Amino acid sequence: MAKILIVDDEAAIADLIQLTLTQAGHECETAMSGNEAADKLEKERYDLVLLDVMLPQISGFELMEYLAPTGTPVIFLTAKGALADRVRGLRLGADDYIVKPFEPMELIARAEAVLRRSGRLGAVRVFGLEVDPAGRIVKRNGQQIALTPREFDLFLLLVRNRGLALYRDVIYERVWGDIAEDDTRTLDLHIQRLRKKLGLQKEIRTVYKIGYMLEAE
Prior knowledge:
By secondary structure, this protein is an alpha/beta fold.
């Protein structure tokens, strides 16, 4: 789990980012202006900052110059087609950029890639389990639970979307990199094995005519 600051003056976008990353197990705070973000950064330590370029009072670029000496990883949020903004942000020291509008799964993947490279991606705790995305390990009471690579990918997808019903086709695309055909036994078998290995028979729920979901705690 990481502590993330979201700096965006569009409330709807900030709320979407916060919801997406919170469901993925991260702790998030928001700031609606450059001044508010600067105040928060003086008081708190963050593992990652998602920074919009166009902000009132202090721009994202000006805030980036303030942030750079702290060594805090930064991902810029830029408008579609704003190539000059992306280039300038990277030259100022940003670790990555995300173009609006974005897919929630892309946001999670990019954020966690930066957190992993910077060594700031901590474990997620759910139903008494400790899930380490960087080490690809699941533990209960300090004891590692043996999962195959595919089982880990499937469980991590459920953890990142807990409380949300995932369609079978989405699961196949995200975990197997392909679209499901008529045979869905592979997914069902992996779900059965996860339930047994992790002791989550009730928490990993079958959603009729849709797919599966991990209950929210």
